[in-house]
Design goal:
With about 110 residues, this protein is mainly α. About 50% of the residues lie in helices and about 5% in strands. A hairpin with a 6-residue loop joins strand 1 and strand 2. It is flat. The relative contact order is 0.14.
């Protein structure tokens, strides 16, 4: 059940119900589901625990969405650890590029 002590993210996770079948892991409990479900749940968990990094070019916290997306995609596709790390690096580079030196984020 949902308690009064839970954060907004925890309440949101509880309301999602079970995810669709798949091979991506939900970090909180080790269950597997479809990558889009795992990405959402893991991103919420990272952000909820304030395990965010800060990318100053884009004014974002890319670790809360790049890492869950790269890990879930790698698990689902069965890629190597090195390929997953490459995806994380590319994700950070794309976020920085999209931030365009704060130009996009501040508009």
């Amino acid at each position: 059940g949902v308690s009064a002590c839970q954060s907004n993210s925890q309440r949101a996770l509880a309301s999602l119900g079970p995810g669709a079948a798949g091979r991506a892991t939900i970090w909180a409990d080790g269950t597997t589901c479809h990558p889009h479900d795992a990405i959402l749940r893991n991103a919420l968990l990272v952000h909820d625990r304030f395990q965010d990094d800060c990318e100053l070019m884009s004014w974002t916290h890319p670790g809360s969405f790049v890492v869950p997306a790269a890990v879930a995609s790698a698990e689902h596709a069965g890629t190597t650890y090195a390929e997953m790390l490459d995806a994380i690096a590319v994700g950070y580079a794309v976020v920085s590029w999209l931030g365009a030196g704060e130009e996009v984020a501040l508009q």
